[in-house]
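Final paragraph of the annual report: two paired records, presented back to back.
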Amino acid sequence: MSSKKVLILVNHDVVIYNFRLELVERLLWEEYEVYISSPYGERIDDLVEIGCHHIEADVNRHGLNLFQEWKLLRYYKKIMKETAPDIVLTYTIKPNIYGGIAAKSLNIPYIANITGLGTAMENGGLVQKVSIALYKISFKNLSKVFFQNKENQQFFIDHNIAVGKHQQVPGSGVNLNHFSLLDYPESSTVEFIFISRIMKEKGIDQYLEAAEYIREKYPYTRFHILGFCEEDYYKTLEKLHDNDIIQYHGMQRDIRKFLFKTHCTIHPTYYPEGMSNVLLESAASGRPIITTNRSGCREIVDNGMNGFIVKQQNSQDLIDKIEMFLKHSHEVKEKMGLAGRKKVEREFDRKIVVDAYMNQIKKETGW
């Protein structure tokens, strides 16, 4: 029997390697032939090495150039005709929409994943109306759409998009072996960390304001930042780094060595998250978390048990919660971290997500 083919459409190599690797490995182990279409990145070589085929794509994640969008749709149709996949898996907005339209036009089963609505969709206006119309077209004949949180699913229900094809999964889940429980640091210095793309909507301004205030009042604290500067914050970070307010480490391939020495992860985002992987990975590592009261974040926090929830875009509330955390004893902080680990073990194991996908893929491909 010849292998069944799976084509995966993503907008970045990290999306597939960091959050879908276990699914890819399972597909390969069960003798599916796996094709990945994405822009080239360093993780593509790792995926090819384990047996995947890579098809390079030009996906502008933020652009709204109509010609580029049309080219991407045509490109997806072209590679689907060439590879003849038995099923297509799509992640993130543009692959979901244009990959969905291409698969629908060629009568290929496809499964989409809503990893977040995106700012334009959440803020309303013309872009939201156009996006809703495109989702209705692209999702008309899809096999299944996985949602990472209830709020995103409700949006699709409210706009009558693919109703009856919905299924919720616990985000991307977290690999509990890769992000194993770490010993809680014994150091007298209390270290906080922000891990994200450096952009306004991820709450970097609130984090920096809190860092300035807390560092002056509590000199035994440290504030770390990991992530690529997606917006124009580099000079600000450089100045604060030179003034010993923060320590900026840039983009890091493996965050575990930083989680090993930090006491708490702060994620003050107000970006439309699907489910925050940073929070899942931090909680799995036994680190308390402080994050905003919004969908994709609040699900991971039992307030006061494994972390604290703060108001969006509210630096003072973030400062208050950091001070509350600092007042806890080392033993209480450690217990908060353990509570977070137990929560992700119960609710966010990546195996749950992989099993959901494999069940649907087998249903569609007949394997």
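The closing record of the year follows.
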Amino acid sequence: MNEIEQLRQIIRESDRIVFFGGAGVSTESNIPDFRSQDGLYNQKNQYPYPPEVMLSRSFFDSHPKEFFQFYFDRMIALDAVPNPAHYALAKLEKEGKLSAVITQNIDGLHQKAGSVNVLELHGSVLRNYCMTCGKYYGLEDVLKLRDENGIPRCELDQSIIKPDVVLYEEGLDQEVLSQAVYEISHCDTLIVGGTSLVVYPAAGLLQYFRGRHLVLINRDATPYDDRADLVIRDSIGRTLSEAVND
């Protein structure tokens, strides 16, 4: 039995699947990840600070002009569309097999593909809020409300509009984290894809899994490979699409 057939069988046997995904899920939608050879951290950087500094809360507070210049240049992919992995997961949810998608991505592509119960550990670029009055703005609104320095400002009080994304030095949303723990601890199959499982606290979520099948789909080795029932080193989109659309 090959890997795709094994995954099909696991899906057939499962009643409550949870998918936990990282940046590798979106690379097939041409959104770069962070740590791979071609990732954001390894790209030639035209900015005077490393990306992990520019994406920190302290940098956002002290250098908003430079933060938003980098953010809109490198973190926003307006033309990105869902890939086969996103659509396969949405189909599994519609069929009643998949109970939740837990994602470290901030691009909103799971919802665009049709997934409903999506737990966004790191927030979303699609949601933005005034730091003073709390007014909500969509991404397109924010792009139109940038001042002469490129900083988006609230049309009500001219305060900075902050993306609803978790920056370095900020904690994860505890409600979302609690929901993710609940879903993982109650599922019978956990499929993990496109994540190195080395970044905490997200990677620590796997310790709550008590189900029957752990499946890892990732290009590189992870610390959990020896605990998995099935490890697949192939395209996430192709793997999930073939396994779900059999």
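The mean pLDDT is 91. This concludes the annual technical report; the extension proposal builds directly on these records.
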